[in-house]
Amino acid sequence: MKILKFGGTSVGTVDSLTNVKKIVDSLDQPAIVVVSALGGLTDRLIATARSASEGKEDYIDEMKIISSRHFDIIDALIPAIRKDDIKSAISSLLKELGDIFKGLSLIRSLPERTLDLVVSFGERMSSIIVAGMLNDARHHDSLSFMRTERWFNKDIADRQLTDSLIKKEFPLPLTQHCVMGGFISRDRDTNEITNLGRGGSDYSAALVAAALDADELEIWTDVDGFLTTDPRIVKNVKLIPSMTFVESMELCSFGAKVIYPPTIYPVFHKNIPIRILNTFNPSAPGTFICDGYDGKPRVCGVSSLGNIAVITISGALASNVAEINTRAYNVMSRNGIGVLLVGQPDNGTDFSIAVPASDLDKAVRLFETEFSQELREEEVVSIKGEKDMTIIAVVGEGIKKISGLGPRLVNTLWRNGIEVKSVSDGASETTIAVVVKKDDSGKALSLIHESSIERS
Predict the structure, then answer these.
(1) CA-CA distance, 324 to 338, in Å (whole number)?
(2) What is the pTM of this model?
(3) Is the distance from CB of 33 to CB of 130 less than 8 angstroms?
(4) Which of 105, 160, 288, 341 fits a disulfide with 354 by CB distance 3.0 to 4.6 angstroms?
(5) How far is CA 154 from the centre of its chain?
(6) Strand, helix or coil for residue 113
(7) Among 14, 53, 6, which Cα is nearest to 31's?
(8) In 10 A of CB 71, how many CB atoms?
(9) Among 147, 103, 144, 104, which residue's Cα sits nearest to residue 127?
(10) Omega before residue 171 within 30° of 0, cis
(11) For residue range 395-417, what is the model confidence (pLDDT) as tens digits?
């Protein structure tokens, strides 16, 4: 049994939805289909909610656009026998949505939970339409079985409760296709509508796959699969036909936007393979992600992550790798700042850490407090931060066993006039990363791809 997830671009137009119908109707056994909102709709819902809460009247025109888009798709794709029922269901949801926007315009406020409610309408409507479009399919309301809990002011999936509800919702073996919306959920304690965050439709599909021990999770998107790097920047990219879970997680963590990184965890632990496929080119083989690794060191792909900052702590304390690592990680994690990379130059007098650029000022203040005694005693000479940086990560199983790869990459950049701000082998055995200035990132990505992929 397969789980198929279709993203916003896959369900965004009549043409793309026609492709979805062909793909699902061609299956030789029933499957569970998870869909996102129509492409671009979530952003539109958020913008409209904010506009309404500011007292602007343009939400009325936006509602007309949203309504027309859904009804045009219904007219084009839903069989006549089901068209009235589908229109009635969508009309009811649109009326509710319009009433919410009107309420926001009156109270001039946009509470977090109300925004969660607003964005839920995208998946609620798209899943009803897709279920009505397919042959022999039933709609399942995700709000009845996807559950979240509040954790450090964030909504995260309650895995145990959600697993049990999924198993009840989808008794096996399936007798017909099942369609559900991704992303949306309810709080386990309050029953309020929540969501799993951006990219949450991928995660919803993975949770269902793991709960039901599916044979495979297919992520249908608008690219042929994972490529060796960003084709918008580098010309000679290649499709990666297969990769491991770890490689896919590392590439996604460092900027590859093929799938939402948390998607991988639920199926990884169940060893359920993922296949990345192109809705607009369904005959392409895609990328197959599984747990298989033949033990040979390799370079799989190169990804880049921009909009980061690097903080460099200089002084004798930097030579105590264990202490400075532990203290740096702890102070960042206690204050909700994600550590993207840690670098330890050979000189032993500098320690660098990469964080999101938006957290730079806060992180510097936290380090100045954490190392205040060392600053007074001059074990730490300075703590400096720099914005407009990019991490470029080279990923592959056993990559650190490739003799001289790290130094070769750094020397390639230096020879071409690109300053390397930090280098990290990281804690992972699958990644070597460098930090360069944003302005150098495109050239650096091309050089590293050429040096590590095209020559391999």
Answers:
(1) 16
(2) 0.90
(3) yes
(4) 341
(5) 16
(6) helix
(7) 6
(8) 16
(9) 144
(10) no
(11) 999 998 888 888 999 999 999 99
